[in-house]
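Hypothesis: this fold can be encoded by more than one sequence.
Test: take the structure tokens below, design a sequence, compare later.
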């Protein structure tokens, strides 16, 4: 399997995962701001909003749903259809999730989910770089072998 195929598969997986979970998370944040779910074990403490510019989770939920989830849906469709600007859309989506995590870390305590989505954003950017032929994960081994080949054949000829 080639690095480009692995990178494409990684992109599609990460984009689908982030799109679905961002949509669900954003919808839950919006719904939580409209209905009282304080008794639910899934309720997010309102203290997370202390010191933030938000008075409820509605706007952050909409941003998560539309911006983070939406860009990942667009990027997924473009990669799946092998569209011309798919890598640009993928880079925008990856940077979007990274910015979301950075901003989140300013206002709320660290969680494993933040680390998970940070790693997914980095993996998405790395896959874009492989697809664009900028990052060569196995290039050292390939260059090393091809650089040795002429010398080995020259030594064998002697």
């Amino acid at each position: 399997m080639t690095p480009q195929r692995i990178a494409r598969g990684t992109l599609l997986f990460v984009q689908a995962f982030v799109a679905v979970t961002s949509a669900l998370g954003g919808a839950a944040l919006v719904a939580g701001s409209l209905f009282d779910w304080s008794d639910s074990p899934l309720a997010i403490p309102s203290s997370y909003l202390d010191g933030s510019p938000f008075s409820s989770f509605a706007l952050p939920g909409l941003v998560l749903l539309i911006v983070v989830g939406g860009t990942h849906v667009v990027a997924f469709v473009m990669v799946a259809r092998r569209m011309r600007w798919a890598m640009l859309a993928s880079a925008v989506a990856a940077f979007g999730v990274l910015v979301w995590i950075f901003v989140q870390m300013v206002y709320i305590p660290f969680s494993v989910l933040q680390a998970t989505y940070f790693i997914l954003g980095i993996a998405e950017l790395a896959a874009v770089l492989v697809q664009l032929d900028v990052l060569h994960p196995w290039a050292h081994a390939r260059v090393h072998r091809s650089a040795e080949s002429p010398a080995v054949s020259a030594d064998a000829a002697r």
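The mean pLDDT is 87. The first helix runs from residue 3 to 34.
Hypothesis status: open.
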